Amino acid sequence: MSETSPPRRGQHVKSLSRSTLVMRVLADKPMRPADLSRELDKPWATIYRAVRVLTDEGMLQRDPDTGEYSIGPAMWAMATSYIRDHPVLGVGLGHLEQVLPHVPGLLKVTERSGLNAVTLFAEQNPQAAAVTRIREQYRLPLHCASFGLVLLAHAPEAFVEDYLSRPLPAISPRTITDPSALRLRLTEVREQGSAASRAELQDDNGSLSVPIRRKDGGVVAALTSVLPLSVFDDAAGHADQLKMLTSTGTRISEALGWRGAYG
Q: What are φ and ψ of residue 219, in 5° steps?
């Protein structure tokens, strides 16, 4: 190929794949190019070129004080389109707004993306005591917390088996990482129609989650209340929150075309 010949298709695909990988890693944690090179086991010069191009296009941004790169404004602009056009939020926002004043904590919606549970919506009831949030709570491995368990429990069987064959990191001492124990827990979640996790992400709260279903009955998202332990550990308060979540999850599912509640 001469110096003036256009790059081959394979080169474009390889460059795009590398750029996508860079953005995925930086979405988890801002890094310098040298750190990113070690993380991806790629030459520094290769990573630096990719980072500079992505920064010039607004997909990444550089912190001048630390030299670290993170997700940039152009990426966020595209992500807002995904949220704007998301079917669950399109039919569900009105229901979420109605129920939020009755949640003594945080209301959230998550979906499965690859091996993670990713937050689509998270709102704190302004009249309730603020729930502590952590950065990682917006994208967690599927075996962590009640919302991840709901999403994993209702994933295709082949996906679940592949997931359980992988090393399972412990987000906290309460995270189930034994595949056999986790398989039993997922069966319980399917049978009960909900999941609960106590003090797994923060010591002062717990969460309850129920599925949101699409027209064919598959689970498209999880609806979650993150509650202070004073409510989570109170039998009546726990039951009331679960009943409200289940009712709201059913209404959103019905708006998506699901009719399972009627047999």
A: -85, 120
Q: What is the CA radius of gyration of the chain?
A: 21
The CA distance from 64 to 27, in Å, is 18
Confidence of residue 2 (pLDDT cuts 50, 70, 90): very low
- Determine the structural domain holding residue 149 and report its residue range: 86-262
Query: What does DSSP say about strands 219-228 and 205-213: parallel, antiparallel, or unpaired?
Result: antiparallel
Tokens of 137: 């709570």
CATH at 227: 3.30.450.40
Tell me: the pLDDT tens digits for 123-143? 999 998 777 665 545 789 999
- Of 152, 150, 151, the C-alpha closest to 160 is 152
CA 214-217-219 angle, 5° bins: 65
- CATH at residue 50: 1.10.10.10
Determine the Cα–Cα distance for residues 98 and 244; give it in Å rounded to an integer: 11
Give the DSSP H/E element, type plus range, for residue 183: helix 179-192
Residue 46 φ then ψ, to 5°: -65, -45
- Residues 100-116: tens digit of each pLDDT: 999 999 999 999 999 99
Q: What pTM value is reported for the model? A: 0.80
Please measure the distance between the N-terminal and C-terminal CA atoms of the chain and give it in whole angstroms. 64
Q: Please name the residue that has the structure tokens 């949101």.
A: 212
